[in-house]
Amino acid sequence: MTSNAKQLFIQRKREITKEKQYYNKFIFNGHFSVFLVILLGAFIMGYAGWLQQIPKGINYALIASIVMAIISIFPIRTLLKDADRLFLLPFEKHMTEYMKQSLRYSYFSRIILQILMIIVLFPLFYVLNNQKIGYYILFTILAILLPMLGLILKWLWYKYKLESWSLYLLLFIIFSSSYYVALGAKHFSSITSVFILVGLIILLRSISDKQLFPWEKLIQLEKQHHMNYYKFVNMFTDVKHLKETAVRRSYLDPVLRTPKKKKFNAHYMYLYLFVRSFARGKDAFHIILRLVVIAAILIVWLQQPIVTLIIGSLFMYIILLQMAQFYTQQAYGLWPQVWPVSDSKVIKGYEQFLHRLMFIVGIVLLVIYLIVNPAFGFAGILFFLVGWLTVNNVIKKLKYQESLLRD
């Protein structure tokens, strides 16, 4: 039965790997790959320049410890499904091997991010520690080892049916204090956290040995992880399994006023629908907001007129391009069936929406660019030019696609 448990997990891992490979074709397309390369180049350039003149009076060890502590709390990926609570119930006493495979999968699927953060932080602490790497090696060992111990403790914590918030608080305190002692205090006592976690694991294992398998908890966690992945993929292509949700944002109410009588008709219907769906939607709004914030940070951080101009224009292009999936979500939804209108009115409303979004994003980027590079402020007009060309290109493709559908 142990081999069957292992085989079951391997089979499900193959299924999710196959699904990710399918969606990766849409995520890492030509546009996004170029975007990542340019973003990486901008980060390296800005980071290298910043390391030459590191601001004083900042506790970098504390900041790095907090960030690494948050990242080190890995989620458990069990790949369990709703039906398992019924069909795998007789199999419960053999789920130990299944969970061993789950913990390994959870660890190795997230350790890449951990390694990347270790690599990114190395130049900073290499400079701060006067080119000595002894304690950073200790920090690296802890950053690799602690997440695995945290996963084992998390599994036993769930099995014993303890509160999740207490686990996250405990792990955060242990991880952050351990990292800070290694990076800030530069002391080998940071390895004490390993013994604390091992002791907790032994204690919980002994008292939770006869506890029932936490089906409901683990299934719900896996479902949430999967939905988060679908939300990310939905930035690039439509996902059938994703359920749309709405969020009230009262500060956006001024842009969602009820249209006046002369604009309450089919000509303005889809402009209002796209604006409202964007403002109330849970995913698209946050996606665009994150991209604008990242663009603003890069413009302020790099402080190089030509480079930041290219970065801002690239972000304008990516933001408008990401909204292409927003059209399919709305144009082929319920409203065209409730109030049928011609395709031209739908596309016209979408074009008006994109122009408004382009104008708002362009103003934000232009103001930031003017503040950072006042002598080159006139060049910020390029943001609007790139946005206008992108909108025209998107609308042209949409019209062509709709003409093919009519044929």
Topology:
Blueprint: H1 2-27, H2 30-52, H3 60-71, H4 84-87, H5 95-128, H6 134-159, H7 164-185, H8 192-207, H9 215-233, H10 266-280, H11 284-302, H12 305-322, H13 324-331, H14 335-338, H15 343-372, H16 381-406
Question: What would you say this structure looks like, in words?
Answer:
This protein has helices spanning about 1-25, 30-50, 60-70, 85, 95-130, 135-160, 165-185, 190-205, 215-235, 265-280, 285-300, 305-320, 325-330, 335-340, 345-370, 380-405. By secondary structure, it is mostly helical. It starts with a helix and ends with a helix.
Protein traits:
16 helices; mainly alpha; 407 residues; 74% helix
Quick synopsis:
The chain has 407 residues and is an all-alpha fold. Helices cover 74% and strands 0% of the residues.
